[in-house]
Amino acid sequence: MAFTWSSAEHAIGVSVFDEEHQRLAALMSQVHTALKEKEDRVLAQNLMGALIYETWVHFDHEERVMEEVGFSERDAHAAEHAALIQQAKEMLQKVQRGDISPQAMPDFLMTWLMSHVQITDRRYAECMQQRGYR
Ligand SMILES: [Fe+2]
Ligand SMILES: [Fe+2]
User: Fold this and answer.
1) 17 C-alpha vs ligand 1 centroid, how far in Å?
2) Can you tell me the mean pLDDT for 113-132?
3) In 10 A of CB 69, how many CB atoms?
4) How far apart are CA 46 and CA 130, in angstroms?
5) Per-residue pLDDT for 1 more than 70?
6) The domain defined by 13-130 carries CATH number 3.30.450.40
7) 98 CA distance to ligand 2 centroid (A)?
8) Which among 47, 3, 103, 53 is positioned nearest to 94, based on CA atoms?
9) Would you list the domain boundaries of the chain?
């Protein structure tokens, strides 16, 4: 099933990052649509490449703000970001080599992105809110 953003479920309470997460989730849904409705594997792989790049930009933004607000878990969080980018690149390479079906991409992306948002990103919300981020 295509992913649907829900503020109640997915928002972390820092609007700049909620907006970025929502844009990434929309791109993730486009990968799903490309595969399931258009059956366009090339488009899906291109979109996944774009998603990895956009996610990398987003991670860099989060790391800069965590630094600015002095969030104590910043380094561990950044290490998780680096591991996630690596995992997604490996997944895309497997699809490109034909080692895994492109149909596996939407489920992978859903878990890959949303579990980080819902668990790890929530941890910085309070610290940023105390420093004026809303
Ligand atoms: Fe994030
Ligand atoms: Fe993050």
Assistant:
1) 6
2) 96
3) 15
4) 39
5) no
6) no
7) 30
8) 103
9) 13-130
